[in-house]
Each structure stands twice: as structure tokens, then as C-alpha cells.
Amino acid sequence: MSLKGFITSVVMAVLLCLSSFIIGVKFTLIILGLFYIIQGILYQYNKDYYIKIQNVINADRERIYESKSDEFKEYIKSDPISCFFVGILFMYLGFRYAYLVPSIKYYIAVSIFVISNYFIEIYAMSKSVDWQDYKKKSILPILIILIFVLFLLN
């Protein structure tokens, strides 16, 4: 874990909160959805740009990923389908919750999710032996944090 990676995570959380405050939750989710769709397109047509974006989003995770064995890398691949799916999901949520007015709980929830996701990804990538271990260490804690965030928003 590096200071740069942590600061990037905090900056992303602040940007999401600020954009939600300035342009609203609807447009923030739509822009986030478009970002993921663009990521999927870049992954499909120009992997170099995709890798550059991933290095900005979570440089520590990518650095640890590069140090893993080829067998580990074979199974831990990002798939453009997942980028498209997440993008469409964010856009759907943007239209579904078009009139959601952000409160202080919303900003806290977004910040908790983004920053904890950073730590979970770093931990899972560094401590995992194989791809199944990585999935256990990354998906379960993220689901727990997501449930906590949803509980906080209600």
C-alpha cells in the first residue's frame, strides 16, 4: 500500500461526493456508467489505455497483480463484459433514483465504500494464493461493506 494509492482513493471518493452535490446523483451515476462503458470499449480495442486507467484507479492493486504468477494472472482477468454490465447498472440506477437528494449519510456511505474497496482489493490481491482465494477475499468483504452502506442509506 502506498500513500499515492490511498490518496487516489480519497480523491475519487471526494470527486464522487462533489459531483453528486454539484450535478446531482442522477448525472453522477450516469457519468460513472459511461466511464465503465468506455473502459469496456478500451479494454476491447486498446488494452494499453485500459491498463493506464486501471493504474490510475488503483495503482497498488495493479502493481501487486503484475508481481503474481502467470497461472494466477490467467484467471484474474478483467472482462469487458463486466465493465459493460457495471456501466449499464450505474446508468440504470441513475435513471431509477433520478430524484434522490444526497444527504450527509449519502456522502459518508460513498466515501466508506470507495475507500474500503481500495483496502479490500489491496489485501485480497496481496494475500491470495490463487484466483479462488482472491475471489473469497475480495467479493465477500465488498458485499459486507455494500450491505453496511445500503443499511446506512436507509
Report on the architecture of this protein.
This protein is an all-alpha fold. It has one domain. It has eight helices and no strands. α4 (59-67) runs parallel beside α7. It is globular and about 45 Å long. The mean pLDDT is 77.
Q: How is the main sheet built?
A: none
Helix content: over 70%
Shape: globular
User: How many helices?
Assistant: 8
Overall pLDDT, averaged? 77
Order of helices and strands: HHHHHHHH
Distance between the termini: 32 Å
- Poorly predicted residue ranges: none
In total, how many beta strands?
0
Strand fraction: under 5%
Rg is 16 Å
Q: Find the structural class using helix and strand composition.
A: mainly alpha
Overall tally of domains: 1
